[in-house]
């Protein structure tokens, strides 16, 4: 809204410009201005341009409106139970000047709230749009073995056999093979124990073969003892097949 001083200056500059152009600078009111028509006054009014007493430039826009100037006030809590109107910015010449640091949206939060209907879904979630609303949706979790479809954001996709969702639940990764590695402490201990057992079993086999004709060996069931020793030797040897990366051959040996 224009103040009284601005209104008087508008009329003064309007009369000056019109008198200079119509009367040719002659002093006094000439016949061409007696009387002045409305369209002529409007034409000169839109040309008015001057610097006001406050130092701001005044002019009318193409629609005949004056400059838009607003002070932006913020009703802020300055202390517990105390509220005040504070100037936090202004709108001047189609330009917004706002000091966000002085604005308090909540007592514990200074950041402006997000103007969205629905927040973006988290990883591993798909969207279900609200009927009749293209900007509003609900998020639902995909199952343990699913990821959100890379082609359609409203559907989940089950991972193929032999794969699982990754940590971000954005793609399916191959399930890593879990086996006892030869350089692990458990594998070293098992192989050491089996090696000692193989050595002892081989020693017993050697003694049995060397003394196979003695009455003691024949009386203890020589053939049955050989079968038992061979089985014990195979049990110890299977340990080495269990600590290496599984292959078709190793799996056959284990079975």
UniProtKB/TrEMBL annotation:
It holds the Pfam family 7tm_3. InterPro entries: ANF_lig-bd_rcpt (IPR001828), GPCR_3_9-Cys_dom (IPR011500), GPCR_3_9-Cys_sf (IPR038550), GPCR_3_C (IPR017978), mGluR (IPR050726), Peripla_BP_I (IPR028082). The chain crosses the membrane at residues 185-209, 224-244. One of its GO terms (cellular component) is plasma membrane. It is a multi-pass membrane protein. Keywords: Cell membrane, G-protein coupled receptor, Glycoprotein, Membrane, Receptor, Transducer, Transmembrane, Transmembrane helix. GO terms for molecular function: G protein-coupled receptor activity. Residues 186-255 form the G-protein coupled receptors family 3 profile domain. The keyword RNA-binding does not apply. It is found in: Cell membrane. G-protein coupled receptor for glutamate. Ligand binding causes a conformation change that triggers signaling via guanine nucleotide-binding proteins (G proteins) and modulates the activity of down-stream effectors. Belongs to the G-protein coupled receptor 3 family. PANTHER family: METABOTROPIC GLUTAMATE RECEPTOR (PTHR24060). This is Metabotropic glutamate receptor 4. It comes from Eumeta variegata (Bagworm moth). The lineage of its organism: Eukaryota, Metazoa, Ecdysozoa, Arthropoda, Hexapoda. The gene is Grm4.
